[in-house]
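Researcher: Please predict.
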Amino acid sequence: MPLHIIDQYSPAKGRINQQILLNRGQRLLKLLGCPDRLFSLVLLDDQTMADFNNRYRNINRATNVLSFPADDGDPFPGQPPELGDILISVDTARREAAQAKRSLHFRLTELIIHGLLHLLGHDHERSEEEALAMWEMEKDLMQQLCTSKRFLRRTTMPKLAINIDHVATVRQARGGTQPDPVLAAGICELAGAEGIVVHLREDRRHIQDRDIRLLRQTIKTKMNLEMAAVKEIINIALDIKPDMITLVPEKRKELTTEGGLDVIKNEKKLAKTIARMKKASIPVSLFIDPDAVQIEAASDIGATFVELHTGRYCDATTEQDRDKEFRLIEQAAELAFESGLRVNAGHGLDYLTTARIAALPTIEELSIGHAIISRAVFVGLDQAVREMLALVRPLSPGH
């Protein structure tokens, strides 16, 4: 492992996903042409950083980053040559991230880049010309990280939950009993799905009350009930007690959910619903757009999860727009994780767009329905689920 993380920062002060930093550190070493080199990343608080500054630089305050190049010499037997140590004050990085309206992990990545360039001999204090050159290198490296289509394998893979609403939609078109969404849920689970998602709409356009009750009795993995925060559906949820609920916006005329909840606008109603569900030991997820303000509001009113809306990313018609939307999701997932929220994602994901989202280390579960049910028309439901699982949980590094 070319990067060794020494975490001396109190977890109580905020969550840090080391897998993100490990992945980005490895990619940076490759971009810098030294994939066989080793460096250590030490995460500190302001007081400890101030002590290091006082001891080595005669500065009695914390700074965001310090670099200590390794002494030239032979490496330890069996170990790659060391570049040195990078010390980062997470307290300072957190303040800088908030000021720039970025995730903490984004700011930590910028500081790792800065520290690595110092370890490789660059110094912005020697001259204005070198400072400008180093700044341009930092921007270029960050841009390459953000736009790269390559991603490293996660140490833990996300779960795949299948939305079976579309099976019920086909059934309702004829008003009969087939195809049966309850049977579909069982096939999905046998094929490897780790959750079943159903949306009980007020107008009952697809899933019916009887479906919900039968599914609660038969699902072996996890039942996620999507619903609007309205009295009738809330009472049904409290009665059947699904494993979790996801609160979504709902409009009568929409073909499918068109966007995320406005948590701020509906704060009182959502907070009241969350409180009722918590009393019944039912975790609540809020389906929101990848927006920092909505994430903060979701955390403030006590949600356990957020599900990030991936629709704009999936619907993008140019590579540039899709990259932009992906970066918004990546940032939002990191911000939610840092806020103490658990993170899921879904909406519009298909066999072309899923793998990149599945590679994000902070996302626990993907909710996918339409693409899988559509694929099942041609290859069967069991095969369609297995093909999606191969993208969500690849056996080898991705694209």
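Model: The domain at 159-392 is CATH 3.20.20.70 (TIM Barrel).
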